[in-house]
Every structure is written in C-alpha cells, then in structure tokens.
Design brief:
It is a single chain. By secondary structure, this protein is of the alpha+beta class. The protein has helices at about 5-10, 60-75; strands at about 20, 25-30, 40-45, 80-85, 100-105. The protein has a 5-stranded antiparallel beta sheet, with helices on one face. The structure holds guanosine-5'-monophosphate (5GP) and zinc ion (ZN).
Length: about 110
C-alpha cells in the first residue's frame, strides 16, 4: 500500500472507493461506515497527517478542499451539513491522512460527542 497509508492508496486508486468528486488535488468519496444518510470524506491526494500538519507550504489544498466541499454539497442538494476533522487519538482520528467528513441528512446535536 502506498506509504502504508490507506487514504494514499485510495487516492492512488489502489483501493476502490465510491467517488463523489475528483480533481488533480483532491478526492471526495463516500465513507465506508456512514454516520448520517449522507457521509463523504474529502482528502488531499498529497499525504498530510492531519490538520496539525497543515503549514504555509501545503495549506492551499485546504482552501481548495473547502471550495470542493461547497461545490459538491450544492450539487448534491445539501441545504445543511456538518464538516468535521478529527485530529489525534483522543478526538477519534483513526486514519492518519488529512480528511474532512461531510455529514448531512439528519438532525445533529451540539456539543458533538
Ligand atoms: P477518522 O476516524 O480518522 O476521523 O475517519 C476515518 C473514516 O474513514 C471513518 O469514518 C471510516 O469509516 C472511514 N474509512 C476507513 N476505512 C475506509 C475505507 O477503506 N473506505 C472508505 N470509503 N472509508 C473508510
Ligand atoms: Zn496518506
């Protein structure tokens, strides 16, 4: 597997995913264990371990990903949705490649669990 990283392997097409959107910088695909009626992930194709690894040299892709989230959500007709990124074990990060969850289609609670 590329870099021993699951999401690098998905970005490279080595592991199949149900794609929502793809361009040269990022990929959006449905989560394998959805936590809402609509649940997809948006990842940079380049490996960044988490939000904690974002810096002035790689942050442009994060702005791009948020444009993609807005675009894809509009295309899917989502009127309300939540964007989440978990950083580190205590926050529940299980895949150490930067990803933004986009969840929609049910009532959400705040604060999150
Ligand atoms: P995290 O727990 O790091 O915030 O989010 C990782 C997400 O990746 C989880 O929601 C999990 O269901 C999803 N996931 C893990 N393995 C796969 C996979 O092989 N394919 C897809 N589509 N999603 C995965
Ligand atoms: Zn990776």
């Amino acid at each position: 597997m590329t870099n021993d990283c699951l999401f690098c392997a998905i970005a490279a097409g080595e592991i199949p995913s149900k794609k929502v959107y793809e361009d040269e910088l990022c990929l959006a695909f449905y989560d394998i264990a959805p936590q809402a009626p609509v649940h997809f992930l948006v990842i940079p194709k380049a490996h960044i371990p988490s939000v904690a690894g974002v810096n002035s040299a790689n942050s442009a892709v994060v702005a791009h990903i948020f444009e993609v989230i807005a675009h894809v959500s509009r295309e899917l007709g989502l009127e309300s949705y939540r964007v989440v990124s978990n950083i580190g074990d205590q926050a529940g990060q299980t895949v150490h490649h930067l990803h933004f969850h986009v969840l929609s289609g049910r009532d959400m609670t705040w604060p999150p669990g």
